[in-house]
Amino acid sequence: MLTATRTTTMLPVEDPERAGTFYADKLGLKPLMTAQDGTRLFELGAGDALGLMPAEKGAQTAHTVISFEVPNLEDEIRELEGKGVEFDDYDLPDFKTVNHIAVMGNERAAWFHDSEGNILCLHELLGDEA
């Protein structure tokens, strides 16, 4: 069954070199290899990987493509902002961020874009779920 498999999340990127630099330098992910088709693979931990797949401009979606669970959301935001990552803020009737953070039930989350326009998220579980 699929419960015992490792996963590779594939993200479309217009410029694999630029995206690779963002994921390595800004997010601190460890590069694994570059495939023959130009897809750059990065280690995510627990055997999982992230693939940056060459794609045409506009292949990115308008929703979160990956969320990284972190132990302390404020610390991660501060560290990434120090590396030049800009976080998104929202002020909608049913969804609002304060200092880049939205509280949703048993988790808190913050969003930002990679160099290619993909929407990424950091989230922290609260209470008994953590």
Can you walk me through this structure?
A hairpin with a 2-residue loop joins strand 8 (102-104) and strand 9. Strands 1-4-3-2 form a four-stranded mixed sheet. Strands 5-10-9-8 form a four-stranded mixed sheet, with helices on one face. It has a two-stranded antiparallel sheet with strand order 6-7. The model has no long low-confidence stretch (mean pLDDT 93). The radius of gyration is 15 Å and the shape is globular. It is of the alpha+beta class and 130 residues long. It has helices at residues 16-26, 73-82; strands at residues 8-13, 30-34, 40-45, 48-54, 64-69, 91-92, 95-96, 102-104, 107-113, 119-125.
Secondary structure elements and their pairing?
Elements: E1 8-13, H1 16-26, E2 30-34, E3 40-45, E4 48-54, E5 64-69, H2 73-82, E6 91-92, E7 95-96, E8 102-104, E9 107-113, E10 119-125
Parallel strand pairs: 1-4, 5-10
Antiparallel strand pairs: 2-3, 3-4, 6-7, 8-9, 9-10
Concise overview:
This protein has 130 residues and is of the alpha+beta class. Helices cover 16% and strands 39% of the residues.
Write out key terms for the chains shown.
10 strands, four-stranded mixed sheet, alpha+beta, 130 residues, 39% strand
Strand order of the largest sheet: 1-4-3-2
Number of helices: 2
Report the major sheet. 4 strands, mixed
User: Cα-atom Rg, whole angstroms?
Assistant: 15 Å
Helix content: 10-25%
Low-confidence stretches: none
From the spread of the alpha carbons, the general shape counts as globular
Question: How much beta, percentage-wise?
Answer: 35-45%
Which structural class matches the secondary elements? Answer: alpha+beta
Q: Average pLDDT value?
A: 93
The number of E-state strands comes to: 10
- The N- to C-terminal Cα distance equals 27 Å
Reading the helices and strands in chain order gives EHEEEEHEEEEE
